[in-house]
Amino acid sequence: METKTKILMSVSLAGLLAFSGCTDNSDSKPPVIGDIPTAKVFESGVSISVVDTASGEAIEDVTVSIKEDSVATDVEGKAITMVETNDIGIAQFYSKSGERVRVVASKEGYVNSGLELNVTEGTNQQTIELLEFNLEAEIEGIELAEANVAVGTGEDAGKVTKDTNVTVGGDTAGKAPVTKIVIPKDTKMTTATGEPAQGAVTVQAVHYDDSTTESFPGGLVALAEDVPTGSDEQTSTQEVNFISAGFTSIQMTDEDGNVIKNFDGEGIEIAMTVPKGTFNPATGEDIKFGDEIPIWSYDEIEGKWKYEAEGTVIENPDDNSLWAVKYKATHLSYWNLDWFRTPTCSMTTVTIENGAGYNTTLKLKGDGFNKTMYDSNGKYNIYYVPNNMPVKFTLFYDGQQEDVVTEILGNTCAINMTLPKPAEKKDVTFNVVERCKDGAANTADAVPSIPVYVQLSNGQWEYATASNEAGNATISVYDDRNTSVKFSTTGDRYESNMISTIVKNGVLDINNSTIPFFYDNVRFQAECNEVTGSGGGSE
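and the corresponding structure tokens:
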């Protein structure tokens, strides 16, 4: 019996997938695959690229945790809460149009980060930057520091044994620190479950200024808790458009590797600096003494933002070129100075001349604002772009910068850009199939909606297309160079979720034109070797 089911992969439109059974001509009635589950129906999915903040290179084996209330499944429709990036730094899963998805990316030696997105039909491509915690690294706008805090044992378990200061930035040449953390003696440090810290506690702190919003955890548009509504001190959970003045991530672990989350009493004191001349979107002027900046916390484990308080801008005794904002914290988090509800365009339209049919990337950047978008239709529709400050729009194609426009958006909220006519390419077509690798049942069936990625001239990978109902995937390549291509999916259905090939000088070798995803041999050993029908059978 033939069954048909529709899948929409992470960056493709939906298509029909037929599983008709594997056959063997040695029997009067063809043998069939046993009970191999079929994929479920989904309108869309998510493809997340994780890259290194300093180098921009892809990071593999990153754990991407999918948080509660997020709809995420593998190719067979099984709910998943975690997926790892593959060897080109991409983690993908399937979701549903209209859902909100929240993820956190983590890897040992890196600072956790995450994002939220509203899933739409078709393409849902996002990038997360992870910062490697390397004290020797020199990254513009980012400063790192590490320190140890001694805590007591027995009845004093988890209590800090002496006043401890952690400074981020600053040096012996007189450069002032950009973040200061004061941990008072007798402050008790505990985990999220209330257990006291054991042994020495390692503090890793990172200060990001407002030029580093590409690294902003959770994204610049995020769902935040306890947001003031402006009346009777009421708060709500709502989507917030952040304009950042800078943020600090603080991570603490004890010698057993337990993550410290809470402090008793008045907690710890954190002082963050803000450069003078920083634009205050709430007043329309540069920030000044006495201005207030909302303080937000980000839970790097759950990927949630929360409004904490208003911070008052004060003089900085260490450097008169910087303002300071000082506050108390009773729980550990990423701490962020952000304005919200600033004047924005509800929808900004960017039209790309010559852009239709070409995969382009558009990056937006302003004071405390950053966004990256992907498109192949020649038009971008972008929500919540600030319209009271200069925003730089940069267009990329094949990894190369093609056009730049800097503008203060007005009432029209529209931008026109141009993609110079790209060099001619030629089309090559692959056929994507799934089948048993061994055994009697080995007929290949077409697989639609498998995402296809190509390597750009700068070495980065970009989504190109997806296989259609017949399993065909057509991409455009140059005829004077080799093009590396990868086909990728997720779940435990296949022996391997990624298949790589190369198109040499624009010519697709007939032997490489079929892309076979083999059913997992351990999981489906019996099914792939089962033979049914009279006169036939498997050993």
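(Above: one complete record from the training split.) Confidence is low (pLDDT under 50) at residues 1-33, 531-539.
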